[in-house]
């Protein structure tokens, strides 16, 4: 595989020096930082997963080292990539830390991803391995992981190992439970650490293009991201953090998430899903103090607590909500109903994180999406011609900073559009800044649908639908939804004499083997799409149209 650095965009040397001299970048690999934490208090509990397993810091660090050695033993070398698609389990954490220790670079896939996404991720990153659960509900993840081998090998010319977490390990799979098990000796524990400037992992972009872009995050920038987030969320060695969102997302991974909590010496609790009955019981049993959810989950938790009381949530101090816009009305209910302080998080896998502060007045916490994490984050709000707008006026948000990389991985052409010449990232979010410096997300200027925090590229869906011969024109747009915020609605112009149905379209998505959360949930058949003056499909008009139709149906 190609060395990662051939396709990444580094920060300018002057910034590297500045971030290092200012003490933001620690100059150490994440595994090294974690070992320091473990050595300070090896007997403190680091990780539990609700199945009875408890690992101390000493045990976790040893398992990470042992698993790093075993990865090397499988022939997976420093700098090579591995697609990670594990559920929220202890194996997720141990394998992640092992990769960080060995300098093997995980590509953070989502549990919902299927053949289309996994093949793309593996091929684009030139991965040599994949880590999956044996199965999830009705899906055989292990089978698919093996089925990918031919396509991936043909594209990369490299090997393909399948690492499996679960009881049902097929011949040819590597058993992750033993790979992540305790060490038998300490041979190889002294292997050299990766450089702090190496790529630590790949996150996936929210995606406005056909397939998600990969975001290369370095040890230096990601450790800073995690540690600074822990500080702003009030996470200490006393904190207990519940992971119930898919752990491969940036939010539960490092904002502060798993890495921020571990680097602060706190305890991480892994739970497979945010379903309220089990989540509340786990919060009570483990004494959870901090957690992160998307607005849709916050809504379900509020309902549950309103009906059954919030007695189980007594230990919960901070509930972070982010990933999509939290309605102000819902925000105002959080503290009274759940009893925990709300922290709004407006973040992105590309870097920039905004948080409301724990001591902000209620109005700021409930009506804004907070302000940048770092004093070194730079923010601009501009018009279509990149001219700066005054506070209070909504415009396009641009950013640069110590944990916002200067380009996507292996995407030179796309980078020319997503970044300005002087390195500002075009977030595609439309925001305004209050006089106090807090950001309010007012909309977006990117062709994406935010379904309960899961980002769906309209272009990707449209490309799939265009493969149906009965379709002449298609536009995917967001339709408002009381539960998820948005869902995917399709406007389709059929070819003359043809009919198109939603079932047929969903069948097409099914045979394309893409993640189910992307499947369109509503179809509007029209004779003509709406067009703007410059000849582009007028998605704003289509969004307004479906919103009107839904209102009329009420
Ligand atoms: C409105 N829109 C928001 C918010 C994200 C923490 C939290 C979230 C993400 C995330 C993340 C929003 N209000 N509070 O990585 O570390 C929308 C914006 C943004 C896009 C990024 C984290 N919080 N958004 O959601 O990379 O449109 O990251 O640009 O998945 O989600 O999506 P993603």
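Sequence proposed for the structure above (554 residues):
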């Amino acid at each position: 595989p190609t060395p990662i650095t051939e396709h990444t965009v580094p920060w300018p040397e002057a910034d590297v020096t500045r971030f290092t001299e200012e003490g933001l970048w620690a100059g150490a690999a994440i595994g090294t930082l974690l070992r320091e934490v473990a050595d300070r208090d090896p007997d403190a509990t680091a990780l539990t997963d609700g199945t009875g397993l408890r690992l101390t810091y000493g045990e976790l660090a040893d398992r990470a080292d042992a698993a790093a050695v075993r990865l090397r033993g499988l022939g997976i070398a420093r700098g090579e990539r591995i697609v990670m698609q594990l559920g929220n389990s202890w194996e997720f954490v141990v394998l992640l830390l092992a990769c960080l220790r060995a300098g093997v670079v995980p590509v953070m896939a989502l549990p919902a991803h299927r053949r289309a996404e996994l093949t793309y991720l593996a091929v684009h990153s030139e991965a040599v391995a994949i880590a999956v659960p044996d199965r999830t509900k009705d899906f055989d993840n292990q089978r698919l992981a093996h089925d990918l081998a031919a396509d991936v090998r043909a594209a990369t010319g490299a090997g393909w190992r399948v690492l499996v977490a679960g009881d049902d390990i097929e011949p040819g799979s590597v058993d992750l439970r033993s790979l992540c098990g305790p060490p038998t000796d300490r041979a190889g524990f002294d292997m050299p650490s990766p450089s702090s400037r190496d790529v630590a992992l790949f996150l996936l972009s929210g995606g406005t293009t056909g397939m998600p872009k990969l975001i290369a995050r370095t040890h230096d920038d990601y450790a800073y991201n995690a540690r600074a987030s822990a500080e702003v969320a009030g996470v200490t060695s006393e904190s207990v953090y519940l992971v119930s969102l898919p752990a491969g997302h940036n939010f539960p991974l490092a904002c502060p998430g798993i890495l921020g909590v571990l680097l602060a010496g706190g305890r991480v609790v892994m739970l497979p899903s945010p379903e309220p009955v089990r989540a509340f019981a786990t919060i009570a049993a483990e004494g959870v103090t901090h957690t992160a959810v998307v607005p849709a989950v916050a809504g379900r938790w509020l309902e549950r607590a309103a009906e059954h009381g919030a007695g189980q949530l007594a230990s919960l101090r901070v509930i972070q909500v982010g990933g999509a816009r939290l309605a102000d009305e819902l925000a105002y209910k959080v503290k009274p109903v759940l009893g925990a302080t709300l922290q709004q998080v407006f973040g992105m896998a590309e870097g920039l994180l905004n948080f409301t502060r724990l001591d902000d007045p209620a109005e700021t916490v409930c009506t804004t999406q907070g302000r940048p994490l770092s004093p070194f984050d730079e923010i601009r709000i501009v018009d279509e011609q990149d001219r700066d707008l005054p506070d209070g006026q909504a415009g396009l948000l641009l950013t640069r900073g110590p944990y916002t990389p200067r380009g996507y991985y292996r995407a030179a052409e796309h980078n020319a559009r997503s970044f300005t010449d002087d390195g500002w990232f075009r977030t595609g979010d439309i925001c305004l800044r209050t006089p106090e410096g807090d950001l309010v997300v007012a909309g977006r200027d990117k062709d994406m649908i935010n379904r309960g925090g899961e980002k769906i590229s309209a272009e990707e869906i449209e490309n799939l639908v265009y493969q149906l011969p009965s379709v002449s024109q298609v536009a995917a747009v967001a339709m408002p939804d009381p539960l998820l915020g948005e869902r995917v609605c399709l406007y389709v112009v059929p070819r003359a004499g043809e009919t198109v149905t939603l079932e047929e379209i969903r069948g097409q998505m099914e045979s394309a083997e893409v993640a189910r959360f992307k499947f369109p949930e509503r179809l509007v058949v029209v004779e003509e799409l709406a067009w703007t003056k410059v000849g582009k499909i007028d998605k704003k008009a289509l969004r307004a149209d479906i919103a009107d139709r839904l209102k009329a149906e009420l």
